[in-house]
Amino acid sequence: MGSTHKLMSSYKDQIVKEKLPQHVAVIMDGNGRWAKQHGNIRLFGHQNGIKSVQEITEAAGELGIKYLTLYTFSVENWNRPKLEVEGLMKLLVSTLADQAKKLHANNVRLKIIGNNALPKAIKEKFDECEQLTAGNTGLTLVLALSYSSRWEITEAVRNIAQEVKDGKIDPNTITSDTVASHLATAFMPDPELLIRTSGEYRISNYLLWQIAYSELYFTDTLWPDFNKEEFYKAIVDYQQRERRFGKTSEQVQ
């Protein structure tokens, strides 16, 4: 028992609080494969993946990370089998209903980013939770729901074009900051760390603008098995990297 406890606390003990990322983004991948390994349907994997969401949210809040963005459901995911999509939507609503008060009690603010393709009843539930937690000052938990980075950037371009047409913006003054301010993520800093589980090495249309200088961390661990210790391990790995932003090592040092 003692050795197990020591193992579970090892990576957390290595974390330097002064070097924590402000914002961690996660691509939660592997629920379906996890379910298949356990001889069950894909929804079983999503159900168990909720436990990992709870663990990682708790871990991020305890460490003092300010923003945690989870790729919960992409625009492309609407093309999955109807029964899986319907089951996942019901699971999201029931989970939020169970967790809303707990998030609020733990000073967690919930934000949703994505297009308006969510069913009305589901969107209303998320709106209620956003309003309930709006004044909280701890961790901001951001769920990317019916989200696509190309959709987000396209919307930003469309809105900027309209403001140019309306005479609100001089096209000669448009900068990268102008674009960033029109993105769905304008309320938070770009992620310093992006984690993807399940052994896949791709970004999957997620925060393409925002991760320009993010550190990327890939793990073979399937999402339902991604626990606090795995999260701490990713943070330690991040802290061992040199963040240069185009400069040389000597300039950074």
What does this structure look like?
There is one protein chain. This protein is an alpha/beta fold and 253 residues long. The chain has 9 helices and 6 strands. Strands 3-4-2-1-5-6 form a 6-stranded parallel β-sheet, with helices on both faces. α1 runs parallel beside α8, α2 (31-37) packs across α3 and α4 packs parallel to α5 (120-133). The N and C termini lie far apart (42 Å). 32% of the residues are buried.
The N- and C-terminal alpha carbons lie at a distance of: 42 Å
Q: Indicate the percent of residues in helices.
A: 40-55%
Q: From the alpha-carbon coordinates, what is the Rg to the nearest angstrom?
A: 19 Å
Strand content: 5-15%
Q: What's the total count of β strands?
A: 6
Q: Any low-confidence stretches, pLDDT <50, length ≥5? A: 1-6
Shape: globular
Which sequence of strands runs across the widest sheet? 3-4-2-1-5-6
Q: Based on helices, strands and strand pairing, what is the structural class?
A: alpha/beta
Order of helix and strand elements from N to C terminus: HEHHEHEHEHHEEHH
Average pLDDT figure: 92
Helical segment tally? 9
Main sheet summary: 6 strands, parallel
